[in-house]
Write a structure and sequence with these properties.
The protein is an alpha/beta fold. 32% of the residues lie in helices and 22% in strands. It is globular, with a radius of gyration of 17 Å. Bound molecules: aminoimidazole 4-carboxamide ribonucleotide.
């Protein structure tokens, strides 16, 4: 097993807006439940472009229909890669190598794989071996158990055992979403996050409930590769420009780390933007 990362790692950190696709729209769900849709925007490509324009170097796109087995938004993913260029990670419904390869060919930097990665370790090892540094495993959890199939089923596996099993693979990293916190804008479970960060030497993106600049500073100082931001950005709880300025520029791999955020105080975190003209802020 590879040694866990030391606390205070200087690995670059990126705050990464989520663009979750469902029925051709950009949505935000609570706890990943399709019946609890709080944000629904008609033009995901415009939303993605909006995040780029605000200064986010990395975007995280999830095809929720594909993750839930109810359809595909692949054309939209391709359009985002083409029309909102920049560092991009994409997941949801990647259950065969052909789709992973197609996404990489379309300009996606990292492909996120959940269900099949958990169900089929041999397939994952082959995939990671063929695309070293390009595959992220989604180890999304509720009460420490790793979930599968659009978070509708448990796997019976605990997060730390999954992290151990992944230690030797040439992955781009691990995405860990705290499903019980996703969409609630109530903050992260810091001790749970630390357990995950200390349980693996792979880069880790944390997702689910990230709500404040202080949490972003915490995740950066504890050595996370990034934080995927959803509801807090879409509802304006987190100020997009302040986040992008402080944490948006560094790619997960090798981008220049910006420390500008350390010069902002909490008062500055929430001012200075025109939220009404931003398509990504429009709630419908
Ligand atoms: O919101 C959900 N119900 C949901 C979601 N956002 N279910 C899965 N996912 C994401 C995971 C990961 O990025 O966080 O889909 C990806 C994994 O999909 P799959 O199909 O490989 O398990």
């Amino acid at each position: 097993m590879t040694p866990p990362r030391p606390a205070g790692s200087s690995r670059p950190f990126a705050a990464v807006p989520a663009v979750d696709l469902k029925g051709g729209r950009c949505v935000q769900l609570v706890g990943g439940r399709p019946d609890d849709e709080r944000v629904s925007l008609p033009d995901p490509v415009a939303v993605a472009r909006g995040w780029r324009e605000r200064g986010f170097g990395v975007l995280h796109v999830v095809d929720l229909d594909a993750a839930l087995g109810s359809g595909s938004n692949l054309d939209l993913v391709r359009a985002i890669a083409r029309e909102a260029p920049g560092e991009l990670q994409v997941g949801g419904g990647v259950r065969d190598e052909a789709l992973a390869a197609e996404l990489l060919d379309a300009g996606v930097d990292r492909v996120v794989v959940g269900t099949r990665a958990i169900d089929d370790p041999d397939w994952l090892a082959a995939l990671a071996g063929r695309h070293p540094g390009r595959i992220v495993v989604a180890a999304d959890i509720r009460d420490g158990e790793v979930l599968r199939r659009g978070w509708t089923e448990g796997s019976g596996l605990r997060i730390l055992e999954v992290l151990d099993a992944l230690a030797e693979l040439p992955l781009a990293g691990i995405l860990c979403t705290d499903v019980g916190r996703e969409g609630r804008v109530e903050g992260i479970d810091r001790s749970g996050v630390l357990e995950v960060l200390r349980g693996t030497a792979h880069p880790v993106w944390i997702s689910g409930g990230v709500t404040t600049m202080d949490e972003l500073r915490f995740l950066r100082s504890e050595g996370a590769a990034g934080a995927v931001l959803g509801m807090a950005l879409y509802t304006g709880s987190l100020d997009a420009e302040a986040v992008a300025h402080a944490f948006g520029g560094a790619g997960a791999e090798g981008g220049a780390r910006t420390d500008a955020g350390q010069h902002l105080d909490e008062g500055q975190d929430t001012d200075g933007t025109n939220q009404t003209t931003d398509p990504a802020r429009t709630r419908r």
